[in-house]
Amino acid sequence: MENQNTTGGASSPMTYGEKAVGLTFNPAGDADVVKIKELYSQIIDICNNKRLNLDKDTEGEKARLFSVAITEAQTAQMWAVKAITFNI
Question: Whole-structure pTM over 0.70, yes or no?
Answer without folding.
Answer: yes
